[in-house]
Model the fold of this input.
Amino acid sequence: MIDLYFWPTPNGYKPLIFLEETGLPYQIKPINILRGDQFKPDFLAIAPNNRIPAIVDDAPAERNQPFALFESGSILIYLAEKTGQFLSSNLRTRHQTIQWLMWQMGGIGPMMGQANHFTRYAPEDIPYGKKRYVNEFKRLLGVMEKQLRDRDYLTEDYSIADMACYPWIAFSHLINVQLADFPKVAKWVERIAERPAVKRAYQVGEPIQGDYQMDEEARRLLFDIKPK
Done:
């Protein structure tokens, strides 16, 4: 059994999509980041960076003791190696996949995250911040557009790299970026969205937030407070 410490954010959906794709048994442990669950000692013992997602594998391949892991990219690699799925054993393809996974971790995720912050949540209007991060996000979409010019997925087959990128790119409209300007990326988004496991992941994840919204307390927890 995999315990998935989750909140419905783009990073949270990455391992949830993988778990649905492979059918690994899992249970969700909601971490309400809008109410400060990420700072509770029990969660920090698993994820010292106080960010979701994190997992605890009760049946790791080696040793008969639970194994905890944080950082979504690392979790995806671990689960792929555990199951032998969505990460090729071919050396070249494997590292091409990891390369695009790292591209998401260091580029698409942080750039869209910052663009989203300055566009939707910053307490004051900072045009430079919005322009800087939205433009960099668009540049990265251009890189992806070129990669997809002669293929359906980022590498040879659907992989953890696609799972990592999809939850971020699918919500480009939130920062007023239109995927019509990137037709190959737009088709890729449609292709991933139609996968039954992806549909199930969002059906499982979306209700978890319930009625919790981004109020002043959530803003304080997410943007101001630093854990002691």
